[in-house]
Structure formats: C-alpha cells, structure tokens
C-alpha cells in the first residue's frame, strides 16, 4: 500500500460524489464533527422550518394547524419518508415518542403475541452489551407483568444462538452496537429466533441512516430506532416504530392513549385501537421537534443507502489505517470489527486514558465521545464528513498522544454527559 498523505485525502474528497450533500448542513467553523452517531448535525433547512412552525403554524395558525398544517398526520407522514431507509413499506412506520417508550410498546406487544401462542415462553434474550435503556425497559416490563418473565443476557453475539430455546419469547437485540460499532447479521439472527419459535425485536438506533437495513428481507418482527443520531432530526427528536405487516393487527398497545384510539375525537370512555400503524401512537406529540425530523429525512431523498454505505466504509477504513499507522506506538486498541460486514459507521478505540484523550480532542475541536470503559468513539456520517477531516482528526489525535497534553488536570474532570 502506498503511504497515505493529506493530498491523497484531498483527492478522495475531489472524487467524492456525495461531497455536495455537506452543503445541506450547518457545521461550525473549526470543528471536525465525529459524533453524528450520538447527535446528528443540523440540516440548514431546520432553522427555517423551526421558525415557520413556531411563527406561522403555531403563532398564526394556532389550534387550526392540527388540521391545516397537517400536525395530526405528521407521525405517519414522516414514517412513510423514513420507511425506505429501513426496508419497510408505506404505512408501516410511525415517528413518535422515544426509543425507550417505543421499545416498551413493541416488547409488550411481542410478549402478548407469544402468550397467546405458547404461554411457556417467558424469556427475553439480549446482550449484556446492549444499550442500557433497552435492558432497563425489558426489566421494567418483566417486573410490571409479574408473570415470571425474565431477561437472559449473553456476553457476546456468538452466544445468542445457544441462548435461544423453547422458553424464549423474544430475541431483543441492537443491530449496531453503540459501543463497539459491531453490526449483527439481522437476517441470520432473525431466522435463528424464528426457528426456535421466538419473535425478533430490532433496535436500529445506530443503523437507521447509517447502514443499509432491510427489515422485510430479514423477516424481522418489530423494530424501533431514533431519529436524532444519523438521521439528523435534532436533540431529542421523536423515534420510530415498525411492526411486520403480519403482526400489525395483533399489536396490543400497552400505552393505550387517545391517539391510538379508533375514533380519537369521539371521546368514548372505552379504548378501541385504530386500524393500521396509528395504533402504535399513544398521545399528543412534540410537534415542533417532530417537524424538524423532516429536514433530515429530506436529505436522504437526494442519495441512497448504497452510496452512503460505500463512503462510510471508505471513511472508517481510512480512519483505522491512519490511526494504526500514525498513532500505532500508543496503547490504542481497535474494538470495532475490521470486517466490513460486521461494522457499522463508527470506529471505537480503547485507550487507558480514553476519557482524558477524548476531552482533549474535543477541546481541540475534534468532537467524538467517550463510553465506559476507556472507549473513545468516533462516528462517521458520510453525508457530511470528508476524507480530509479524517486525516486532520488523526493528526490532532497524534499530537494529543505524542505531547501527552491529555494528562492535563482539566481533561480529567468528568462532565455530566460524556
Ligand atoms: C441512542 C439509543 C437509545 C436511546 O433511547 P432514548 O429513548 O432516545 O433515550 C436506545 N437504544 C439504543 C441502542 C441507542 O443507541
């Protein structure tokens, strides 16, 4: 391999057919943003959209905007825009609530389906390295149901197959691991779950908009995910829910709020679920935040996941190679799989002083983040990250490590949010 240079990266940027998409984002000067896996950057259109929602739709339209501005149908309309990114059909997805809340709903629905098929199935299988909220929600639901449900955790994806059995109700896994960036084989694991009579719930928080996902082809049963990471919906923007069409009518809503009611404005005293995806809704949605989700989704309409995936792998390959060749004399350990088929759109390196190294990088304008234990996480968003930025970020990392500047006391102080 020829030695990589900054000129080489500049040439990659010149040849990048997705280069123009960066102009759709407002990124501050002097910052290399490698944390789109935690909070996506702001689409330029979001400021104008927010102003219009607040001043015109809310300010002028007032209550009329539920009808005239399409607020009431917004969860379904956005769901339809998001659907192609995850291999879902039209009228199969809604944007609503949070990932934690949507997981509670689909897990409850899945357990209910299983209880009607085979009441002996009481176990939810997941990974101990799954994002904590997923595990906490499953624990909370099992406690609430008080019927002997339990969570069985395995310590690595290789152990999933052996953990599935006649007692398994649901396999609940995250497609791309938030910490390691490892991607699981959705079709294979779903087939394994089905072969054992279990249903498969997939968390797409680090996949939606980051890697090609085909829920239908994988035969998945339920999926949830957030819109504020790779989809650039804005801080705390609402999440999404998908249910396989064959399970939709059996979807039992544990949070049976009025938005999921068959006739929300009939104001009936008894709950009756709406038909179709609207039954995944609970109550009134944060419309100002939800409206901004569209700005992120509209950018995806200008490209396709295959092109984004190709660039994402090029970016992560380049980052891994540069860190290993230029910072290889430091105790950095790659914990993200090298194999393309097992990698999402982020790269994680463990370092004994991972927190301080990341704090120092952020201070120098290279924004990634930190996850326990010792892990420096770098997210690569092919919509706006350039190859030259990858080069420049590694040069800053090299300087931080070579100079030992991260040992400075101010980089040891933990912020509330890491
Ligand atoms: C980011 C993330 C969440 C976040 O859930 P919220 O309800 O939005 O806080 C959940 N699960 C996974 C796997 C995540 O990566």
Automatic annotation (TrEMBL):
Source organism superkingdom: Bacteria
Binding site for pyridoxal 5'-phosphate: 99-100, 131-134, 174, 203, 206, 228, 258, 284
InterPro entries named in the record: Kynureninase, PyrdxlP-dep_Trfase, PyrdxlP-dep_Trfase_major, PyrdxlP-dep_Trfase_small
Reactions listed under catalytic activity: L-kynurenine + H2O = anthranilate + L-alanine + H(+); 3-hydroxy-L-kynurenine + H2O = 3-hydroxyanthranilate + L-alanine + H(+)
Biological pathway: Amino-acid degradation; L-kynurenine degradation; L-alanine and anthranilate from L-kynurenine: step 1/1; Cofactor biosynthesis; NAD(+) biosynthesis; quinolinate from L-kynurenine: step 2/3
UniProt cross-references to Pfam families, sorted A to Z: KYNU_C
Residue numbers bearing the N6-(pyridoxal phosphate)lysine modification: 229
Keywords: Hydrolase, Pyridine nucleotide biosynthesis, Pyridoxal phosphate
Family annotation (Gene3D superfamilies): Aspartate Aminotransferase, domain 1, Type I PLP-dependent aspartate aminotransferase-like (Major domain)
Subunit organization: Homodimer.
PANTHER family given in the database record: KYNURENINASE (PTHR14084:SF0)
Protein name (record): Kynureninase
Organism: Cupriavidus malaysiensis
Gene giving rise to this polypeptide: kynU
């Amino acid at each position: 391999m020829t030695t990589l240079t900054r000129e080489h990266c500049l040439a990659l940027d010149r040849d990048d057919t997705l280069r123009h998409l960066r102009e759709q984002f407002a990124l501050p000067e002097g910052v290399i943003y490698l944390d789109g896996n935690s909070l996506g950057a702001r689409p330029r259109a979001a400021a104008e959209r927010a102003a219009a929602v607040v001043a015109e739709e809310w300010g002028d339209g007032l209550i009329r905007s539920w009808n005239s501005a399409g607020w009431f149908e917004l969860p379904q309309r956005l769901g339809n825009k998001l659907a192609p990114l995850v291999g879902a059909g039209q009228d199969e997805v809604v944007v609503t609530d949070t990932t934690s809340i949507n997981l509670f709903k689909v897990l409850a629905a899945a357990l209910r389906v299983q209880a009607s098929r085979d009441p002996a199935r009481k176990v939810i299988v997941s990974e101990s390295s799954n994002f904590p909220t997923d595990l906490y929600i499953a624990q909370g639901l099992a406690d609430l149901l008080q019927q002997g449900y339990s969570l069985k955790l395995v310590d690595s994806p290789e152990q999933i197959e052996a953990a599935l059995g006649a007692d398994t109700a649901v396999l609940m896994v995250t497609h791309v691991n938030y910490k390691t960036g490892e991607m699981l084989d959705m079709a294979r694991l779903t087939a394994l779950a089905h072969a054992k009579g279990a249903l498969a719930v997939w968390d797409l928080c680090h996949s939606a908009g980051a890697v090609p996902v085909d829920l239908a082809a994988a035969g998945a049963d339920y999926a949830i995910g957030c819109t504020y990471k790779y989809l650039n919906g804005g801080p705390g923007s609402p999440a999404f829910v998908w249910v396989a069409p064959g399970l939709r009518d059996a979807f039992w809503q544990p949070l049976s709020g009025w938005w999921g009611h068959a006739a929300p404005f009939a104001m009936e005293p008894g709950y009756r679920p709406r038909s179709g995806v609207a039954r995944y809704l609970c109550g009134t949605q944060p419309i100002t935040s939800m409206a901004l989700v569209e700005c992120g989704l509209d950018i995806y309409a200008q490209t396709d996941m295959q092109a984004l995936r190709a660039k994402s792998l090029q970016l992560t390959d380049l980052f891994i190679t540069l860190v290993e060749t230029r910072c290889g004399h430091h105790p950095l350990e790659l914990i993200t799989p090298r194999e393309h088929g097992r990698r999402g759109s982020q790269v994680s390196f463990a370092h004994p002083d991972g927190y301080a190294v990341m704090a120092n990088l952020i201070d120098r304008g290279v924004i990634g983040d930190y996850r326990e234990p010792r892990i420096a996480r770098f997210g690569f968003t092919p919509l706006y990250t350039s190859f030259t930025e990858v080069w420049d970020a590694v040069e800053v990392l090299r300087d931080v490590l070579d100079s030992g500047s991260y040992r400075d006391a101010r980089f040891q102080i933990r912020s509330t949010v890491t």
